[in-house]
């Protein structure tokens, strides 16, 4: 199993390019199921989750033509309407084939995603929404069996704000008979990116970016070329790495307007930030100050940045309260950070982080994607060597993280 080995203590400095967003590219790849024509997707990041999704779609009959950062997807005939457990267990976003497959082919069999490290993550809202649109759904032997001659538009009030739930139902509704209204919809930028791709394919969608999305079903969608948005979580992770290490960093091919809550917290922590249309520059002029935060759906502070900010708080002056409201088990990095001399206590869904003078390098184990990123950041600022085991989690969501960090002066390498 591969490991990352980091010699900490170097302030990060330099310029890197941000990749396309994993959480936008995954649903956009699934949107290719909605048409028999070619959907060309640009700025697809090179990540394990993307490889898994391409192989799942390939098994279903989608022809995949990767060409550098551009991928042509043609779902002329869907031959195999199944998403097997072996794939869904490694990547929960595989549930995103359910809505489009059902809408286009009238049937789908998708493994129920298991509980994963960060929480139970049920898919009841996806199922409830599709049922409201007339799908017959049975759950047997761990699989969702869904069928519908043609889905019909419906008014669906989601009990909870769910990102992939909103995306699945929005995709299904594009080919339904009549109008669908999704209430309490997710407002994440990745939902907007998917909607813009669907609109480029001929879908009629209004209200995205608000919590009520209206979709008028159409008979057919057509091919299009669409560029995936920049990864706001990769952007945020590098910004925190630079801030926590006392460095200066320039990020290109990214956007600041999807990161307001994160940038506000970085400035509160002492960072000077400037940004343009497609770049962000961060310089750490002041000593780090601890920042309280509470995760919540967009536009509030993203849960996918919680672990990284915990590391920043570990070495900041003061005490921070970090409250996680999205996932019930997203503090697994805490016990690993404590092995590195961090002072963190967890009370329910709140972590109390007292800043210490410095972290110590140690052997630690990655448990999920963003927890892994937080351990990399901790290793970068710690004294001595940190060895991070089980980094396959990291490769799900970060493109060549060690290469990008090396460009910024980090002493980091991958080893078997
Ligand atoms: C591929 C992708 O885009 N992943 C992101 C997506 O995950 P994902 O879309 O899976 O997360 P959700 O927004 O669905 O989850 C939010 C909360 O709703 C609960 N829930 C969700 C669906 C449902 O049917 N029933 C239910 O109870 C979940 O357990 C969780 O507690 O949004 C999360 C929240 O911003 C991010 O952390 C993930 O990085
Ligand atoms: C939790 C994440 O991803 P996923 O929903 O794919 O597990 C994430 O990107 O932080």
TrEMBL record:
Domain (Enolpyruvate transferase): give its ranges: 7-405
Q: Does the keyword Membrane apply?
A: no
Query: What EC class is this?
Result: transferase
Protein residues bound to UDP-N-acetyl-alpha-D-glucosamine: 92, 121-125, 304, 326
Q: Which reaction does it catalyse?
A: phosphoenolpyruvate + UDP-N-acetyl-alpha-D-glucosamine = UDP-N-acetyl-3-O-(1-carboxyvinyl)-alpha-D-glucosamine + phosphate
Provide the active-site residues from the annotation.
Answer: 116
Q: Which domain of life is it from?
A: Bacteria
Q: Which UniProt keywords apply?
A: Cell cycle, Cell division, Cell shape, Cell wall biogenesis/degradation, Cytoplasm, Peptidoglycan synthesis, Pyruvate, Transferase
Residues with the modification 2-(S-cysteinyl)pyruvic acid O-phosphothioketal, per the entry, are 116
The protein's matches in InterPro entries, at most eight in alphabetical order, are given as: Enolpyruvate_Tfrase_dom, Enolpyruvate_Tfrase_sf, MurA_subfamily, RNA3'P_cycl/enolpyr_Trfase_a/b, UDP_GlcNAc_COvinyl_MurA
The protein's location, in the record's own words, is:
Cytoplasm
Which family does the record assign? Belongs to the EPSP synthase family. MurA subfamily.
The protein's name in its UniProt record: UDP-N-acetylglucosamine 1-carboxyvinyltransferase
**Taxonomic lineage of the native organism:** Bacteria, Pseudomonadati, Pseudomonadota, Betaproteobacteria, Nitrosomonadales
Quote the gene name from the UniProt entry.
murA
